[in-house]
Amino acid sequence: MLANVFLKTLRDQRRSLMWWGIGLVALTSLTMAFYPAFSDAPDFDEIFEQMPEALTKMFAGEFTDLTSPEGFLNSQLFFFVVPLMFVIFAVLAGSAAIAGEEGAGTLSLLLTSTTPRWRVVVEKFGAVAVATLALALFLWLGLAAGAVAVDMDISLLGLAAASLSTALLAVAFGAFALALGCITGARGLSAGAASAVAIAAYFLNALAPLSDALTPLQKLSPFYYFIGADPLTNGLNALHAGVLLALTAAALGVAVLAFERRDLHG
Amino acid sequence: MSAVIQLEGLTKHYGSARGIVDLDLEVSEGEVFGFLGPNGAGKTTTIRLIMDLIRPSEGTARVFSLDARRDATLIQARTGYMPGELALYGGLTGIEMLKYAANLRGGVDWAFVEGLAERLDCDLSRPIGTLSTGNKHKVGLIHALMHRPELLILDEPTSGLDPIVQRELHRLLEEVRAEGRTVFLSSHILPEVESLCDRVGIIREGRLVTIQQVEALKESALSHLEFHFAAEVSADEFSSLPGVREVTAEGTVVRCTVSGSVDAVVKAAALHEVLDLVSHEPSLEQVFLAYYTGESGDAG
Ligand SMILES: Nc1ncnc2c1ncn2[C@@H]1O[C@H](COP(=O)(O)OP(=O)(O)O)[C@@H](O)[C@H]1O
Ligand SMILES: [Mg+2]
């Protein structure tokens, strides 16, 4: 696990990944345990419809049919709480990758050990991406096990597509936090600014449909490309996934260019 | 002999603050070069520029005739570096940290690493976070030496080391010198540089003041002697002796500031009954004063 920067960074994340995985599995199993109650009581849909539209949009988007398996999972997990957890995980990992080591002072030795700066950034990004994908695997396994346990009629491929879409969204924000860290060298600032942008992007996607004027702006939010095409029901949308990958690549490019140019703090 | 380090007009501003200004310097192969200056003089700035951790505002740094910026990784492969503010992976053991560093460098002779650890009496099996400052320093030194680099760059390597380890470090540097490798070390302690180095560059407020052979530096260095005599002695007996810069007499106590050899002063004092003799190492500031005031004699 100490063979290169990529593996060392993954190693550094192993404990955090384990706890996030446990939390995610706990969250999904707990939520799934409520599914039989929802599906047996179609009244839930009516109750949900009577809630203020802004409120339901805020935390469930367009997913208002709670009693179908897809509607239940999308509204209860995939629209809000699961991407929230994933984005936080990836933002923390992305801001720690360069800015965290820089703040700790260990980057001085790492960057004088013959690995070029661009490769340090790319390998660290790779570790953040792989850790986030591993978290998505935990999510998928937890959901699949839960679906079997509560006898939910849901496609395992659909679950995989939604889990992967979540990971792609989170990796894009992780790369954004990494880029901020590469530009500023300040870990807290990078994590905070990336989180703030993620929150704004979330609400833009959730609430833009409420106003005709704002609706076109929804497509500016990365969250739209994560959930807008409902990957749980329709599988991964290649175009939307492509947008998330392109955002990630752009952030990584900025990260490398900025980091190559600037002075190391210390 | 070819230049291992070559700085030309090297300048670094931090925003509007001065880092270093127009530094020209050459260090030859096989030389142990001391970079001496008080805190804030610009030693760390210079070293970080050489290591490509920061980038010059103007001027160039070349190492092994390679460009410090463009060929950084090639230079790093042949250089061992110990930063002034050493930070290691606290969560790793010494072995893990050094294995990681060795892997990044494509492997090192591990028996040599173990030999270094033994000589420095450094326990590599403990997590670095649990080590004392001195022991962390040892891990940092092993890290800098482990790939037998042609050039060693050490930023104030002995600060924080206990005397026994300092002596071991001195012995290691002797070996490095004997093998014809090059050392560039910074320090703010004159005697340390005098005992370790062949040549010394003095930096002050970002500018190189002088570069001297250590011998010459010692000659022009000031020493302070304080004689306690049994009876009153006049200052006049010392004031015209060679090398004497300043004399004060207070009753039976005479204080002399001497540049270079103290021989004449000691012999003159021996004509009287000497109860006690106190000698002070010249401080770095006094060494600087010796340069700034030239030979005018009004130093101190
Ligand atoms: N990152 C920085 N930002 C602003 N000023 C700095 C920075 N690093 C060093 N300096 C300033 O540059 C000067 C030289 O510092 P330094 O190279 O660390 O000196 P030394 O190592 O000789 O003690 C000092 O005046 C210091 O305050
Ligand atoms: Mg310093």
Structure in words:
The complex is a heterodimer of chains A (266) and B (300). Chain A has 266 residues and is mainly alpha-helical. Chain A has one domain. Chain A has helices at 5-33, 35-40, 43-50, 53-60, 69-78, 81-104, 107-110, 117-149, 156-184, 187-207, 222-227, 231-234, 238-261. In chain A, helix 6 (81-104) packs antiparallel against helix 8 (117-149), helix 6 packs antiparallel against helix 10 and helix 9 runs parallel beside helix 13 (238-261). The longest helix of chain A is centred in the middle third of the chain and has 33 residues, at 117-149. By secondary structure, chain B is an alpha/beta fold. Chain B contains 11 helices and 14 strands. A 6-stranded mixed sheet of chain B has the order 6-7-8-3-9-10, sandwiched between helices. Chain B has a 4-stranded antiparallel sheet with strand order 2-1-4-5. Among the domains of chain B are: 3-78 and 149-217, P-loop containing nucleotide triphosphate hydrolases (Rossmann fold), CATH 3.40.50; 222-281, Alpha-Beta Plaits. The longest helix of chain B has 16 residues, at 163-178. Chain B has helices spanning 43-50, 72-77, 94-104, 110-119, 133-145, 163-178, 190-196, 214-220, 236-239, 263-269, 284-292, and strands at 3-14, 17-28, 32-36, 58-63, 66-67, 79-82, 151-155, 182-187, 199-204, 207-213, 222-229, 244-250, 253-259, 274-280. The A-B interface holds A 2-5, 8, 12, 104-106, 108-116, 261-264, 266 and B 48, 51-55, 72-73, 76-77, 79, 81, 83, 85-89, 91-92, 96, 99-101, 103-106, 143. Bound molecules: adenosine-5'-diphosphate and magnesium ion. Adenosine-5'-diphosphate (ADP) binds at residues 14, 17, 19, 37, 39-45 of chain B.
